[in-house]
């Protein structure tokens, strides 16, 4: 990914949680894969490299990678459908917009919901007792790793351990959409049965594909079609375990090739080194923005930082011409917060970033 | 799309039903849209142009365009979920693999299935009496326009009229995945309540997004969440009717920008002229291939032609080095048919096509 340059000042630079900028080498890989037949040795090799790299950056060498065309939210929905039955209990630990989204998924699917609501901005590991209580008798417990509505990184290991301690039969589902590729993720070591991520953000490609990483305990629970043909895990598992690459429904092979190019480069450079670079990039973002966080805390920064008392529309208007784009707040913080994120690119141009972010700091104070 | 060239002989050329080659101007549009913020005037304008062009090429100025991230099959599933309730009757008219796929969707959703099976290769309009009988009391009747497993173009107008005659309350759903942008589609005039298409094939972009075009009768039936959060039509309708572009879950804006670029160019050039060019391209395919059709008939050629007694694996091996890729048969024809298709590009290089297809004709006879 070293081929990515921040570019001239006039160029648009997104610091929004979505979409994320896509690096030049990823575009090249997508383009090269556009005429790849949807079967055969080349696709086999590409999917194998993609799955290996994804397993490496999520610490999941034994999880099966189920690739779907669709959003990560649809993938979460498919996981709940596949591993639980209507009427069974699903607990959801939420401290933000994306936790609440899982609550809505579980409700729409007619599962018995037990929501553990932790205040926005407070990490979920502060509520381990409540997590344990909600886990008892639950078929599945879902939690978010990096909550992009507030910038809070939850301690997924601690939450997973609390579930396991309370009820070893409950499956653990982790929303790793904003953490995979950006933060340390160790599914095996943390006892996470299912993790969901998407093709964009930390995986570096365009949106359009999503991945469920499924451990053996989750695979043992798979319902035949789960009430869906298009997102049936039974069919996805069949495709994923076929001797040669089998694709279930038409995938966006170029989008997958983009993920493969990004992740293979990450693994080649060294995953630990990559994470250190990402942390440095985010430290630069935080430092250069020089703004108080919405929720003070000493949690290490994740890829998204949230700034209080800043109206994103107002700020965006003042930033017109700088090429900088920042994200609006979500949910209750829609009108009074700015979200500053940087996903995907592995080689930050710190000076250019500082230069541009000075504009944020200058323009930031509401007039 | 006039910027597309067939390229040198060594270049890979796909004549497969999926994936389809993507033209240079479409790639440029995708790339230009990669840093488009997921809200704001630019996205507004892009989606408005996309929806207008899609409505024009499908004859549906009053249908609402619901854009989803996912496969067309998932979009069909969302339409069935949204407009029918579990236990209600859904009739499916099938004469091939893609009709059978809708049968599986309806079964997975627990709707009461009435399947009208027409033999593979026989157009569905030969079974209008059976279609009428199956329609009576059905909440929804689904049919495929161009059946890519056999190359048969069904008379969607006649099928839709038969449904309407038999039961005016039944909604008509048309799988237009392989016909939108390639064949005449007149949803309003034909009385089609819901049509589904995807971002690739005749819409010219990468796979990853899908569209449901919904008429007022369909919108009147929408169930609140339909048993899905991620593909809830109520939420999609809310997003589609918002004053400014509202996106429900993260869309692949570049994929949508690719569709917009392709379709806007089609509309600018003139839709009728575009369809005439597509018919010419397919006539060249048929003529140059010089092979007998799997199912003889006098239906005008659609974008996919199927050739009998040809093993695609065998043929592909003999074509190695020519850069030509053809598709394998499907279902019962997996081992003994070749599917030859050409989607998306509007300016065929007839000579290059003939030159390459002579290789198909020469290599085609099983040894």
From TrEMBL, chains A, B:
Protein name: Aminotransferase class V
Domain Aminotransferase class V: 42-286
KW Ribosomal protein (keyword) present: no
Lineage: Bacteria, Bacillati, Actinomycetota, Actinomycetes, Micrococcales
This protein's record includes keyword Lipid metabolism: no
GO MF annotation, one: alanine-glyoxylate transaminase activity
Residue(s) carrying N6-(pyridoxal phosphate)lysine: 201
Cofactor(s) recorded in Swiss-Prot or TrEMBL: pyridoxal 5'-phosphate
Family: Belongs to the class-V pyridoxal-phosphate-dependent aminotransferase family.
InterPro entries: Aminotrans_V_dom (IPR000192), PyrdxlP-dep_Trfase (IPR015424), PyrdxlP-dep_Trfase_major (IPR015421), PyrdxlP-dep_Trfase_small (IPR015422), SP_NH2Trfase/AEP_transaminase (IPR024169)
GO biological process, one term: glycine biosynthetic process, by transamination of glyoxylate
Organism field: Cellulomonas fimi (strain ATCC 484 / DSM 20113 / JCM 1341 / CCUG 24087 / LMG 16345 / NBRC 15513 / NCIMB 8980 / NCTC 7547 / NRS-133)
Any one Pfam family match given in the protein's UniProt record, by short name: Aminotran_5
Keyword terms: Aminotransferase, Pyridoxal phosphate, Transferase
